[in-house]
Specification:
By secondary structure, this protein is α+β, with helices and mostly antiparallel strands. It folds into 2 domains: 242 residues, 3-Layer(bba) Sandwich (FAD/NAD(P)-binding domain); 150 residues, Helicase, Ruva Protein, domain 3. Helix content is 29%, strand content 23%. The chain has a 6-stranded antiparallel beta barrel with strand order 12-15-14-13-16-17. A 5-stranded parallel beta sheet has the order 6-2-1-10-19, covered by helices on one side. Strands 3-5-4 form a 3-stranded antiparallel beta sheet. It is elongated.
Length: 408
């Protein structure tokens, strides 16, 4: 039996603590907040997309940030194992669009309760309001931790699961990276991932608060190569765009540093250009006596109409019956290709996930143990692994946490 310290009571830390304790170790979890799973409680707008019901190969393909590193861990504790774990802990699950798995209760709190119960039922001890300032290692081997109070505590192993630097109000402030660096680990550049995007055009910002549902989007580079396409929901903000399809798209343009990319919305994805033109003709016949600016109510949200009319270049007061065929076709093209330029991402503290972290080259993939310091393990977002939206990032946390706890 070993004395094990787990730093961080989030998704990865609690899973690691529960598994290590289940194997008979004396486990202590140190959490600087006054409760467990503070970030976990707000994931998926509080609904908590715990995993994705896809096969292993599909899972790995959805991890653009060092997905190969995850092969061992995801086979040790897979997305199917994640589902079985929560069902066995009394959390009933449901599968939604895209294989996304949620608690039937739509409550992230139920997920946190299950993880805390897993740790406590195996006799792990959780110490809240207790911050750790450093990890002590002697001769390349862990010997304990130092609390912020200055107190030294001896341990045989330490699992570092402090998260990234996204959502710092939940406690993810990056102190784990500092501890890792102090022990000689490389921390790759930290960047925002799954993050709202800023845009160049002012007209986008005028649409602040407008949500669009069932739209298709695509992103193109400056050579008009399609980088990414998706279908779903998005919204306009005071700085640009956000919402599910935007967050998903953001990870695909991280390598472009969120610049020189055009975001294109198809407002009518169910219609071909020819079908849309017939629809426009019907609407224009219906509103033939109205001005152009008053003829689009059946096609567009009210808030979008003035901006759309402006972008079309057609005089707002022009009688509908005077709109030419060429102008009508131009309207159709605009409905299928509403475009604006991405100029950047929102700051790291507004991102859902941190891309970058402790280098995977310095971690043993089938144990999560440090290659540099014996008895030091990593779990969760602190590792340089990140994925797209859809439950993949939380699965990484559970999988690496379980693997670390299983390997102590």
């Amino acid at each position: 039996m070993k004395r094990v310290a787990v730093i961080g009571a989030g998704a990865a830390g609690l899973m690691a603590a529960g598994r290590a304790a289940e194997r008979g170790h004396r486990v202590f979890v140190f959490e600087k907040n006054n409760c467990a799973g503070k970030k976990l409680r707000i994931t998926g707008k509080g609904r908590c997309n715990i995993t994705n019901a896809c096969d292993i190969d599909t899972f790995i393909s959805n991890v653009p940030g060092n997905g190969k590193f995850m092969h061992s861990a995801i086979r040790t504790f897979s997305n199917t194992d994640v589902m079985d774990f929560f069902e066995n802990m009394g959390v009933k699950l449901k599968v939604e669009r895209g294989g996304r798995v949620f608690p039937e209760s739509d409550s992230a709190g139920d997920v946190v309760k299950a993880l805390v119960q897993y740790a406590l039922s195996n006799n792990a001890v959780i110490k809240y309001d207790t911050a750790v300032s450093g990890i002590i290692a002697e001769s390349g081997e862990v010997s304990g931790i130092k609390l912020s109070s200055g107190e030294i505590k001896e341990f045989d192993a330490v699992i570092l699961a402090t998260g990234g630097v996204s959502y710092p109000k939940t406690g993810s402030t990056g102190e784990g990276y500092k501890m890792a660096r102090e022990l000689g680990h490389t921390v790759t550049p930290l960047k925002p991932s799954l993050v709202p995007l800023e845009v160049k055009e002012d007209w986008v910002k005028r649409l602040q608060g407008l949500s669009l549902k069932n739209v298709s989007v695509r992103l193109e580079d400056k050579n008009k190569n399609v980088i990414y396409s998706d279908f779903g929901e998005m919204m306009f903000t005071h700085f640009g765009v956000s919402g599910p399809v935007v967050l998903s798209a953001s990870r695909h343009i991280l390598k472009y540093d969120y610049r020189d990319v055009v975001f294109i919305i198809d407002l009518k994805p169910a219609l071909t250009e020819e079908q849309l033109d017939l629809r426009l003709q019907r609407d224009f016949n219906k509103y033939s006596r109205k001005q152009f600016k008053n003829s689009l109510g059946d096609l567009l949200p009210k808030m979008l109409i003035p901006v759309f009319v402006e972008l079309s270049g057609i005089p707002p007061e022009k009688p509908v019956h005077q709109v030419t065929k060429e102008e009508r076709q131009q309207i159709g093209k605009l409905l299928k290709n509403l475009a604006f330029e991405i100029t950047g991402a929102r700051p790291l503290d507004e991102a859902i996930v941190t891309a970058g972290g402790v280098s995977v080259k310095e971690i043993v993939p089938n144990t999560m143990e440090s290659k540099l310091v014996k008895g030091l393990f990593f779990a969760g977002e602190i590792i340089d692994v990140d994925a797209y939206t859809g439950g993949f990032n939380l699965t990484i946390a559970f999988s690496t946490g379980y693997t670390a706890g299983n390997s102590v």
